[in-house]
Amino acid sequence: MSRVSTGRTAVATPAAVRTRIRGRRRDAGAIWRGLFFASAIFLVISIAAIMVMIGRPAIALFAQVRPWAFLFGRVWAPEHGLYGVLPFFAGSLAATGMALLIGGPLGLAGAIYLAKLATPRAQRVMRPAIQLLAGIPSVVYGWVGLTALVPFIRRHSGHVTGFGLLAAGIVLGVMVLPTFISLAEDALRAVPQDIEHGSLALGTTRWQTIAHVIIPAAWPGIAAAGILGLARAIGETMAVQMVLGNSPVIPTGLIVPASTLTSEIVLEMGSTPQGSPANNALFAMGLLLLLVSLGLIVAVRATRREATAGVREAH
Amino acid sequence: MSARRTDQIARWTVTAAAGLILLVLGYILGSVLINGLPVLSWHFLTSRSSNLGPGGGISLQIFNTLYIVIMSMLMAVPVGLGAGVYLAEYALPGRLTSLIRLATESLASVPSIVFGLFGMVVFVNAAGLGFSRLGGAATLALLNLPLIVRVSEEAIRAVPADLRHASLALGATKEQTIFSAVLPATVGRLATGVTLAAGRALGESAVLIATAGMSSPRYLTLDPLASGETLAVHLWAVNAENSLSDAARIADGTAAFLILAMLAVSLGIGWLARRLDRRLAGQG
Q1: Contact B113 A49 (CB under 8 A)
Q2: What is chain A's pLDDT, residue by residue, as a tens digit (315 residues)?
Q3: What CA–CA distances, in Å, run from B27 to A113, A150, A272, B165?
Q4: A96 and A214: one domain?
Q5: Best residue in B110, B249, B258 for a mutation probing chain A (most A CBs within 10 Å)
């Protein structure tokens, strides 16, 4: 090694040195370019690996349990060979629906307030507050839900426990607020000012302009915000598990113990042996969640395209 | 009802809703801190958790949380930054680029419990590590990767073109320009984004329950293959197992500690952003 390098210095002319440095720069450049590209490709590999590793045990399950008996089976009793996840799927959908019912109107109002009504001073309070709401760990949401909300519901409803979809829906409704508000606010702000001014110049009140001009124009963006909120809610695990009561039956009311796909996975993933049908069924539930989330992303992309097309049309 | 009356009522309702959101935040922070702060004694913060009787602390969980968060950021930041550089500086519009973008968005939408299952099957089972800090941190890194990619790409795109042109005009190669002109100018935004991701990692639990596990080694060790229960996991586990008479007290204290850590991270983000803005403004 050292002999070669002394040999090189012996014949070094300024021109040779210059080309060599440039050559090295190019080599270094090529290496860095390769690393940047590899990092980007790593993302593609990761999502593919997740699908394969979650999908394989799921497919192993479907060799033993028919997919429709899995999807639409009403009884979850692994000890009897019954792997129906309809109770969990129904629980996930119901909890998510409740979240949207509670968080949607509240979040839309918050977004309208931030985008159109708040004074700069009020904005300086609201914005950090919403960021803090986003930063609270989901176990802490669950803990507050368990120690404050569930007892509150128990006291005021007369039910035995207070666990159930109502508690989960309220907790999730608060948890989706930050995602929903910040995206919906962006959508409201993206509406061109001239439309707003045009409406106000016609003599409408501020609210008439907001309700009849701005919200309709921003609707695709608001819908995209709602869908991302849904994605957040359906994948939420810990907070839901802590307030839901965890009973594997199709929910018959808002204040009865229920389960979701996520809460069931987290409860059983440590206690089922690897490769057993019960364990594979958890992966199949994970695959179901994954497919629903990916479907929601595709839906968001479609709504966003519509949103940009709408703004272009408006101009 | 006149249009003006409707206008008044509607504006009042919207403002009240915004107030309600503040109230909810205030209630959550207030109740967690009021219940939990009295628990946070020096003894609680510095003693080990106990599986047998009351009186356990959270010192091991604090250590595990720091360990796993730092390790996961060390894994996620280089890869995320690299992908961000690629997307901002090299990617040409086309099928490959849209595939990478779709992958990033999809990865961002994967529920954390699915990451948990993935980490369990890859690190705990296939790699045979068992519950380990390494497996937990790697899975957590994967969860945070899309956020870091997005922050990096936005930060790089926000760098003024003049800076690039000046560097290239001095004869620097594209890669030299990226390292000595573009990336230094992104430090502020990048630091904010990384802190945000670290804050998210701090409170994450669904990913870690079945990867880093729900126990800690008996003695203080830096071994990455040891299991490492974090604060958020502890808050859940102590409550789910419900074997300790003072489980609620420990959960209260852990929740308050997590909230304080979250507040510190948020204040840190604000401070960092202001400081770096001022520094950059001073230079500019």
Answers
A1: no
A2: 344 444 444 455 666 555 555 555 567 888 999 999 999 999 999 999 999 999 999 999 998 888 888 888 888 888 888 888 999 999 999 999 999 999 999 999 999 999 999 999 999 999 999 989 999 999 999 999 999 999 999 999 888 888 999 999 999 999 999 999 999 999 999 999 899 999 999 988 889 999 999 999 999 999 999 999 999 999 999 999 999 988 888 888 888 889 999 999 998 887 888 888 889 999 999 999 999 999 998 898 888 887 776 655 655
A3: 21, 15, 38, 52
A4: yes
A5: B110
In angstroms, the CA B177 to CA B110 distance is 35
Evaluate whether residue A68 is within a structural domain: no
In a domain, A70, yes or no: no
- Confirm whether A6 is domain-assigned: yes
A19 and A123 part of one domain? no
Contact A91, A165 (CB under 8 A): yes
pTM for this structure?
A: 0.89
Residues 28-87 of B with CB under 8 A from A: 28-29, 31-32, 35, 78-83, 85-87
Neighbours of A282 (CB within 10 A): 28
Size of the A and B interface in Cβ pairs below 8 Å: 252
Facing B203 at nearest CB: one of A29, A113, A138 = A138
Domain that holds residue A233: 85-314
Rounded to whole angstroms, the Cα distance separating B222 from B64 reads 9
> What whole-number distance in Å separates Cα of residue B257 and Cα of residue B234?
12
| Residue type, position A90, single letter | A
Kindly report the nearest CA distance between residue A238 and chain B, in angstroms. Answer: 6
Overall number of domains in chain A = 2
Same domain, A34 and A113: no
Residues A102 and A187 in one domain: yes
R_g over Cα of chain B: 23
Residues A28 and A169 in one domain: no
C-beta of residue B81 within 8 angstroms of C-beta of residue A261: no
Q: Measure CB to CB from residue B121 to each of A53, A113, A174 and give the nearest one.
A: A53
CATH superfamily assigned to domain B40-283? MetI-like (1.10.3720.10)
